[in-house]
Amino acid sequence: MKIGLLGFGVVGRGVYEITCARDDMQVTKVLCLEDISLPDAEAVKDFKEILNDDSIDTVVEAMGGLHPAYEFVRAAIEAGKNVVTSNKALVCTFYDELLPLAQSKGVKFRSTAAVGGGIGWLSELERSRRVQTISQVGGIMNGTCNYILDNMTRMGLNYDDVLKQAQKLGYAEANPSTDVDGIDTWHKVILSSNIAFGVTVDKSTVPVAGIRNIQAQDVENFKAHGLVCKLISTGKRTENGCSVYVQPTLVKEGEPEAAVPMNYNLITFIGDTSERMSFYGQGAGRYPTAYNVVQDLVDVLEGKGFYAPYGEKVAADNSEKLTWYVRGNWQGETAESWGNAVIVKDVSVTDMHAWLKENSEAFVAAIRA
Ligand code: HSE
Prior knowledge:
By secondary structure, this protein is α/β, with parallel strands linked by helices. It is built from 13 helices and 17 strands. It has a nine-stranded mixed sheet with strand order 12-11-7-9-10-17-14-16-15.
């Protein structure tokens, strides 16, 4: 396998290093705008040098971002090259376009590293749905947020300092808003729901709330009630479609998610045969993520392509009513007070996220029953 590698950042460099040690695949060209010199590959600055190179059969996209990653991936598929990508924004946004395109061109398209970094989550989800109906997916899907929440909870550290540390360690996206505002998790749960339920979830119907506004006082309030805050994604099959959302969630000390440390992820599916299955591991970082990219390359060598048939577009229905911790200018009914915050019952996910949009300084977390 001859590979054209797009991007030489955290993930791209890891892919290059791992493939250098293998006989069955070789990175022959690397697209990188900076001046680099590599012993085993040619560094190029123009994507056309990879696109028009007929000896390259597979493109690895590790640039991140939507553009020009989308244009490059689309062109590579149209030119008959297999594509492996770790780019969740790309796959989530163009799911119902890139999958059928790859299918019509007879090329392989895989993106296991797009969710869970080094965890074989999407590849197992794909296998799982072959023999059972999956009713639920979700969990802790963002290493940066977990790193921040874990350090705030266990070490009493301040939000800004921990975020800087996560950036230094290479966990955070180039724009950390993507992590802390939940967008990265949003992409990941939509992609997971698409695969698990065989649909294309309408992204505009999936609400997301992040952890940007959490304060040390909130963490103290949670501790006083035996709770731990995590950024949790949820995708559920419902009678008429699905329910999909991302929000800070308070779980009881002693529950599996509460114990997840540092930048680790814990992602779960529930199936009618397997019941609950959880996947725990490094959700970010150079080598874990590059590991799953290389696993996909091996799958491509073995002829394995799509995760799942792309399905019809469905709107998420988030009318489910939950109990919430709210710190902010809540004017509605409250059940009790926790210091400077209140507990609010029987408010739907849709209604609480709509309130949060109008109250952008507030911090809200669902309390898991
Ligand atoms: N920024 C992401 C995270 C990287 O922190 O989980 C892996 O997708």
